[in-house]
Amino acid sequence: MLDKLQGVMNKITKSRVIDEELIQEITKDIQRILIQADVSVELVKELTDDIKEKIKEKKPPKGVSKKEYITKLIYNELKEVLGGEEYKPKMKSHDILLVGLYGSGKTTTVAKLAQFYSKRGMKTCAITTDVDRPAAYEQLQQLGEKADIDVYGEPEAKEAFKVLEKYLKETEEYDVRIIDSAGRDNVNQELLNEIKQLEKKLKPEETFLVASADTGQTAKRIANDFNNEIGITGVIVTKTDTSAKAGGALTACSEAEVPVAFIGTGEKIDEFKVFNAEDFVANLLGKPDLGELLKRVQRATQETELDPQEMMKGKYDFQTFYKQLEAVNKMGSLSKIFNALGIQNKISKEELQATEEKMQKYKYMLDSMTNEELKNPDLMNQNRKQRIANGSGRTQEEVKELIEHFNKGKKMIKRLKGGKSRDMKKMMQQMQKKGGGGLF
Ligand SMILES: Nc1nc2c(ncn2[C@@H]2O[C@H](COP(=O)(O)OP(=O)(O)OP(=O)(O)O)[C@@H](O)[C@H]2O)c(=O)[nH]1
Ligand SMILES: [Mg+2]
To answer: Residues within 5 Å of ion ligand 2 by Cβ?
Structure first.
């Protein structure tokens, strides 16, 4: 997938003109590569249709060549199907349960994850509850030595639940406790029951499904099964170094609407990292200077992104809300904006500061939403709110406040739409020029 996508990007940079024929060729190439990487056919079709449509519809913004624009577009679309934003590891005390099928890499990942946290100054230990695999305890102990972390468990134990109970008491002083569990050939009731029992006792803040990259598209079904039965907070995709299907596994998680939190990139303890869709795509597209170019393009596109006309016509979702925040941020501090509007005297400094802090808070919470949620505010339910609160380090109350604020904005747009007057649209344009659609 890697070298091949680079080839497609080279085609774009080397071509003299970007015409219909080249666009066809590029989308065909991308389709072929993604399908070879085991990305689902529907998803591939959706993605390439989207790319084609956008190339046709939108003109590159000022200062950006068509080649750069198309590169950015493909990059963005790929990033989206890989799940968008980067996972934010929790940096407070918490328990993590790892679950997954046989040989998916759970035990290795326990050690990797433990090292990840202990390197970041958290007192970390690992507990194995795998009473099925012979020498599961010894395996974890060996890995624990390499990772320099304490390991708890009992070689002769018969019941997972009892081992957990015993060692939870002994490990209360640790900041992070990572619990290994036994695997099975497939997701069956016996496995789920065992995990449910562990979950009930542990009440982990994170339950990660460990899935091997070579499961490809199947990762979607596995993630859905585990998610429906026990509720997982994320997936760790292992062996991304060995399988050509890594792209399939990663996109499958995004289709199952569970975020990919970390990826394993080798057998060694430190071959492990937080999953970042942007880095992953940058690697696929193989352009070391892409980051700089993209920033430039992003700056340029941002100017056209918040289009009040479109806002009046289209649907108002969290993405629109986010763009408004961005637009305001881009203008600089609120006090500067109010100064420019000549209304600085009407608002106290404290109020301004509080608003600015609130906006920052909102951004963190929006950053913790999935793309699906950004596009469909109706999806918000208790579980999602809790996850967003956890992911952004905020409280559920604050998530509620964000949603209320968003709903107010939505109502305001509705009222403006109802006004039907051209003056209203003009007003919106004015407000947009002066900062963020005027909703803050
Ligand atoms: N190349 C590579 N190998 C990995 C990675 N993660 C795990 N492995 C290897 O995968 C094999 C299985 O890993 P384990 O950690 O034992 O898997 P498990 O899920 O605990 O297995 P069971 O306990 O038997 O269910 C080992 O040989 C690991 O070295 C990875 O990211 N890359
Ligand atoms: Mg194991």
So the answer is: 106-107
